Each structure stands twice: as structure tokens, then as C-alpha cells.
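User: Here's a chain of 198 residues. Predict its fold as C-alpha cells.
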Amino acid sequence: MSIQNGLLHSVQAIEEHYSAGDYIFREESTPLFYYQIVTGEVKLNSYKEDGKEFIQDILSDNSCFGESMLILGKPYTVNAVALTKCTVLKISRDQFFQLLQDHPDNFLNMYTALSEKTTEKLVLMQKISSQNAEERLVELMNQMKESKENKYRYSFEIPHTRQQLASLTGLSLETTIRVIKRMEKDEILIIKNGKIFY
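Assistant: Prediction complete.
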């Protein structure tokens, strides 16, 4: 769910530009702004004790991020890092709450989107806790494809690298590559020019 860019501009949103690898916010910092991507990709990640990256989400144009922690007023549980060159709009916490109060339809849309996101995360967490690597990858791909109109077999190009798929599912890169090859052999997905279609 996102708020119309024009509406954000009408409350003096600040436009910021980031290069790939730049931190937008860091884990444990206090949420002060509502963020929304205009262009580019942002990943939400954290690191395990052994230094291994776990990607919580990868977001693109018109996606908002960090809003649940902003609403709760609790420190971020993830980092937000630009994956590509990004343009991001931000408004202060006070402006955000005033905007929701002045435009209740946005509040309802955000409430619904947060509920859907929570449900998706619960389902994914159940699958990720499974020892079956294929189940983890299938569930992630199903969730990505769910919002697309075309549900035909092999119609959806997975927008992530194998490393990103590994980080999103808590698998090693080697396991992810091996399982994807097996899924191709079993005709669950196809690979064209190195791209995965599900």
C-alpha cells in the first residue's frame, strides 16, 4: 500500500536520493519518518550472529517501508538499504499521522495492507521453519506471483537473484541453486537466459 505521491508532495514531502548500498535507516534507530519509494529498489535486512544476511523483503516503486515501526513508535528491527539507485519521499511522523487523519481512506488502505503483510509473513515463517528447502522457495514464489493478474504457469519472472532468494528464505546459496535446478528438472519452473520463470 502506498500514499499518492501528489498527496505526499502536498504536505511538503522531502525527496531524497540514494545510491546502491546506502542505508536509509538502520536497525535499532528510532523511526522519525514515513518513507515511500518513487523509483528504485530497497531491501529490508538484518544480520544473524554469524554475520549471515537475512533479507526480510525487497521493495520497489510506490512501496512504503518501516511504517509499522513508525506507527508503534518502536526502534526499527531491520535495516533499509538501497539495492539500486533510489528516489524516496519522506514525511515526518507528525505529518504522517495528520495525513491519515485528514484522509481516512489512506488509513483504511494502510491498515488492510499491514494486515495482509502480517498474514503473508506468518505463512512464510511457517514454511521457512520447514526443513524442506523446496517448500520454502515455492511459498516465496507463490507470494510474489499472487498479486499478478497472469497466474499461468511460467508467466512470472522472479525479480530476484539466487543470492536474494537464499537470503529471503534463510537458505544457503548453494542449496538454493541446487533446489532451483531440481525444480527446473521437475518442471515446477523454467530458466531462460539465467532468469527464473514460475
